[in-house]
Amino acid sequence: MTADPLAPLDLAFWNIESAGHPMHLAALGVFSARSPSAAAHAADLLAARAAAVPGLRMRIRDTWEPPTLRLPLASAVRRSLAFGGATREPDPGFDPLDHVRLHPPAADFHAAAGRLMGLPLRRARPPWEAHVLPGEDGVSFAVLFKFHHALADGLRALTLAAALMDPMDLPTPRSRPAEPRRGLLPDVREVPGLVRGALADAGRALDIGAAVARSTLDMRSSPALTCAPSGTRRTAGVVVDLDDVHRIRKSAGGTVNDVLIAVVAGALRRWLDERGDGSEGLAPRALIPVSRRRPRTAHPQGNRLSGYLIRLPVGERDPLGRLTQVRTAMDRNKDAGPHRGAGAVALLAEHVPPLGHRLGGPLLGQAARLWFDVLVTSVPLPGFGLRLGGDPLGAVFPLAPLAPGHSLAVAVSTYRGSVHYGLVADGAAVPDLGRLARAVTEEVTTLISACDH
């Protein structure tokens, strides 16, 4: 393994992070334990297997190597482009025991996960951790996997975590054909195309910027979705029957994702009304990340994300009306594509030099609340069952990073016939996160009832 420069979006995630806003994504997996020693055995397995997974040995190292006049031109240019950046490289002192921890028995897995989610990963080591939580009931245990967003996006994190599970016979992913090595300067015959590409990129950047500016106009959100950071976290999880979601989809139209987003809108409405904040007239902006990675190809490094920005119809009283508005907004975003519109801000990271990420990262993080109000992301999971030490994984709750100034983030995954909602909130701003979790279940019931009538 050699050192690779961080991709632009990875570098952005690395520099946005602060002590109060760690930029790791996570998943809380709950396993059925066949013996009282299952959790300890799982911790031993995770540590032993991590040593054999190359991606888990990679640390991120900041680079500060300005060019010098004594270097040849090509070397000077390369060092200039890398100035202020970071590389992903093997950690010579990697010890998996530093990354896997067995905790005392827990009565509430989500309470323990919330405390751990508020703790940043160590930046001098490969930025990932696995926390094994034995259940006080003696018949279950949980594992909280944490991966820095600069190390992995959702698909990459899934690949790394799955490599630590029990071996399974899976098809080998198709590899991308190797790209031919290019010189420092382009072939002169390619210049017209490169110029057209640069102009297209500039036009797209202006389009995205204008869309972001428009998205801040006539804004009606809720103070409950923004907060002064406390540095603490809470998590909660909800399990919904996938058959119920398909039942709603077949009756009301749209996609499964449309239904899942509409459920979030309805749950927010219930939650805001019950806590006295009020929901009438509210349409908070939800950022819906869109992966640009091909799931069946082997492309291990670098976040490849764009996104859609939609208004959640929280102020709409009719549950089917909320679903219709979500479906219309998502269709409009899909027609435009993931490369345009306010949700595609992540693409602009590719046009910022490394030093710009270094200097502007903290400011960009603070500007997140001006761009969107709540993150609603979907994390893909395999359709087959996973095991660790022979113990089956029964539920898995994806957990998204919380942007600066935001009080809530929602992640959704489908696993073995169930939809798993993972909720992450600022611990001080949202002490009633469990009530929001219950509202998700209630909203599914409300939509089913509305479809039946």
Architecture overview:
The chain has 453 residues and is an alpha+beta fold. The protein has two domains: 2-162, 2-Layer Sandwich (Chloramphenicol Acetyltransferase), CATH 3.30.559; 197-382 and 397-450, Nonribosomal peptide synthetase, condensation domain (Chloramphenicol Acetyltransferase), CATH 3.30.559. It has twelve helices and 17 strands. Helix 4 (109-117) links the parallel strand 5 and strand 6. Helix 7 (242-252) crosses helix 12. The longest helix has 25 residues, at 191-215. The radius of gyration is 23 Å and the shape is globular. Mean pLDDT is 81; it is low at 76-80, 170-206 and 296-300.
Query: Which CATH C-level class of the largest domain is it?
Result: Alpha Beta
CATH architecture of the largest domain, by name, is 2-Layer Sandwich
Give the total of beta strands: 17
If you consult CATH, what is the topology of the largest domain? Chloramphenicol Acetyltransferase
Order of helices and strands: EHEHEHEEHEEHEHEHHEEEHHHEEEEEH
- Report the C-alpha radius of gyration, rounded: 23 Å
What would you give as the CATH superfamily of the largest domain?
A: Nonribosomal peptide synthetase, condensation domain
| Tally of domains | 2
Lateral arrangement of strands in the main beta sheet:
5-6-7-2-15-14
Query: What percentage of the residues does DSSP assign to strands (E)?
Result: 15-25%
How can the largest sheet be summarized? 6 strands, mixed
Unreliable stretches (pLDDT < 50, length at least 5) are 76-80, 170-206, 296-300
Tally of contiguous helical segments = 12
Structural class: alpha+beta
